[in-house]
Design brief:
alpha/beta, 3 domains, 10-stranded mixed sheet, transmembrane helix, Gpr1/Fun34/SatP-like
């Protein structure tokens, strides 16, 4: 135990008070922000998220770290481990509020886990060091990486949640065997299971190297070095590990993660070419199709005005084209050409009883058509448009003033029509050029939605007249469909839950109803 000699008075302070107060303040601030989100139905974003992240990192992360170090100074290893774990948790949670790019957080969590796992043969037997390593590796490499995996699924990224989910398992198993194992005194017989797991990890990661070859050189390098790290893990289960090799591999892994973090953050903040990530080793077939001389239909680049004009001419001439939206790709036909709308049914093999909706660029287009809507419907549409929500409303002569013209009987049902106002600059400009478009998802009926222009080309390119190429979709599911036919009675009905959760739609509706009282 410590004595009075040689220690300042702060040694006898209670670091637990600092840790608990920091926990309480941060939890209360997050509670307030989440309560406001639940009440208004609008998620925090922009400056609000950045300020929340800075608060969590500086106030709770730093204070918990100080409390943890003071606890270790008092030889209270249990409290020290808990506080440092909380520091890693709050700091990582704060980072998720600040960083704009999912890949940035992916590289950051793996880098922190690798740095925490660095150790030497002598220090690996230190109980204090092991207690420090457990929360740092586990929280950053497993807990926060689980959050990254969830973001990857929602964002529809190229490798989705596969690599983050796998690395989550790797770091969790690594922590259990290398750091928690000595504390729990795992028997040699018990380590055989970890040997089998390490072999399985090696095989799975080999396939992930192939996936990363379609990404960039940084990701490819990361997966290759992870293969070497897993070899070290396998050797450690066999009691044959040269620790110098492990230190070297973890150090290289950490450096790659550091560069990936900085590059992803800088590129998402400024412009993509500031810090190169390297080209893919294997070219994506979807990207190659864009320049293929044997394409089944004309292509246009969404980044240029000439591309929009090209597609608009094809639509005006009665063609059916694949276009991007704020959710998934859609097949579009001009409302000036009813026959083109009929062709959509043949192209998709779509049942005749399934109506087609119309797409416009803004709510102001509806205002100009002067439909006889009640104030509650107007206010609800202004709160959900533009965005991934489609509203079913009553049909009427106002559709003729909107520009639907001869397509009146070819869109919607006899008494209702679904309106889409995508939150997508390209689609909005295209509708401004062509007028209202009849759209439906760009996939054969009953098959998954198209989330890349290459999918539209490969599945429907031989049946349509053009594709507006815009790369990966922002979402992996279609819009949420809301029946507003009885909105004046104070009710709406969720026909299909898509990219916008049904609970959020109802929150928006309740907020609008309350504001109209």
């Amino acid at each position: 135990m410590a004595t009075l000699d040689g220690f300042p008075a702060s040694f006898y302070g209670e670091p637990g008070v600092l840790g608990m107060v920091a926990n309480g303040i941060s939890a209360f601030m997050v509670l307030l922000q989440n309560f406001n989100t639940a009440r208004t139905g609008v998620s925090a974003e922009g400056v609000e998220n950045i300020l929340a992240g800075v608060h969590l990192i500086l106030i709770d992360g730093v204070c918990q770290l100080i409390a943890g170090l003071l606890s270790f100074r008092k030889y209270d290893h249990l409290s020290g481990t808990a506080f440092i774990g909380y520091a890693a948790l709050w700091g990582s949670y704060g980072a998720t509020r600040i960083f704009l790019d999912i890949l940035c957080l992916f590289y950051l969590t793996n880098g922190v886990a690798a740095l925490s796992a660095l150790h030497t043969a002598s220090s690996s037997q230190s109980v204090t060091f092991l207690q420090l390593s457990v929360p740092c590796v586990l929280v950053s490499g497993a807990v926060v990486q689980g959050f990254v995996s969830r973001l990857q699924v929602r964002g529809g990224q190229r490798f989705g949640s596969v690599i983050p989910s796998f690395y989550l398992s790797v770091w969790a198993t690594w922590t259990w065997y290398r750091f928690t194992g000595p504390l729990l005194q795992i028997s040699p017989v018990g380590s055989y299971g970890f040997t089998a797991g390490a072999i399985a990890f090696l095989v799975i990661n080999a396939f992930l190297v192939l996936i990363a070859a379609y990404g960039n050189l940084v990701l490819l390098s990361l997966t290759v070095v992870m293969e070497a790290v897993l070899v070290c893990f396998l050797l450690s289960t066999l009691q044959q590990l040269p620790y110098q090799l492990e230190i070297a591999m973890l150090a290289v892994f950490s450096v790659i993660c550091l560069y990936g973090t900085l590059a992803s953050l800088v590129n998402s903040t400024f412009r993509p070419s500031v810090m190169p990530m390297g080209p893919p080793l294997v070219k994506d077939v979807n990207e190659q199709q864009k320049f293929s001389p044997a394409l089944p239909c004309p292509m246009a680049d969404s980044r240029g005005t000439s591309g929009l004009l090209k597609i608009s001419r094809l639509l005006d001439d009665g063609g059916v084209c694949g276009i991007p939206t704020d959710t998934v790709y859609a097949l579009a036909a001009s409302c000036k050409n009813p026959q083109a709308i009929e062709n959509i049914y043949n192209i998709k093999d779509r049942p005749a009883e399934k109506p087609i909706c119309i797409c416009i660029s803004s709510v102001e287009q509806l205002v100009a058509a002067k439909p006889p809507f009640r104030p509650l419907l107007w206010e609800f549409m202004r709160n959900v448009y533009p965005g991934g929500i489609s509203c079913i409303i009553s049909k009427g002569d106002w559709l003729l003033r909107l520009g639907v013209g001869p397509a009146y009987d070819h869109v919607g049902t006899n008494d209702s029509i679904m309106i889409r106002v995508p939150d997508h600059t390209v689609t909005g400009h295209l509708c401004d050029i062509t007028g209202p478009l009849a759209i439906t998802s760009a996939n054969p009926s009953g098959e998954p939605d198209s989330t890349h222009h290459g999918m539209v080309i490969s599945r429907l390119g031989h049946k349509i007249q053009g594709v507006l190429c815009d790369g990966d979709s922002n979402e992996v599911v279609a819009s949420t469909v809301v029946n507003c036919l009885k909105i004046d009675e104070g009710t709406i009905r969720i026909v299909r839950e898509g990219c916008v959760p049904a609970v959020k739609v109802r929150q928006i509706f309740e907020r609008v109803k309350t504001s109209m009282l």
